[in-house]
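ok trying this again, last paste got cut off
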Amino acid sequence: MTQAEQNKKLIEDFYREFFNGHDVNSALKYVREDYIQHNPGVDQGRAALMEAFGQKFQEWPDFKLDIKMMISDEDMIAVYLKNVDSEGNTKCRVVDIYRIQDGRLAEHWDVLQPV
């Protein structure tokens, strides 16, 4: 499996378990403890990510992200997604960009476009 394929599988597994399965503890497998967050709405570190999305999943139990495209280049991967409601309507378009280190998510940037 190439590095690009490994990175894409990492992202697919992380999104399936964490964002769509609402299993915040799955971050322990996929995210480095010293995770660097460039989204000002979420604090630094894996624990902060888990806490922020644990609250989000309680507030929005139908929260889901559909991956539409991924672009992988060495240790970086960009993910184009749609946040959809339970009826499949797009609520927001998202581009997440990650730096991967030692097989885990190490750093994150994002751009959001509400629909």
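PB: full thing came through this time. The beta strands are 31-37, 65-73, 76-84, 90-101, 104-114.
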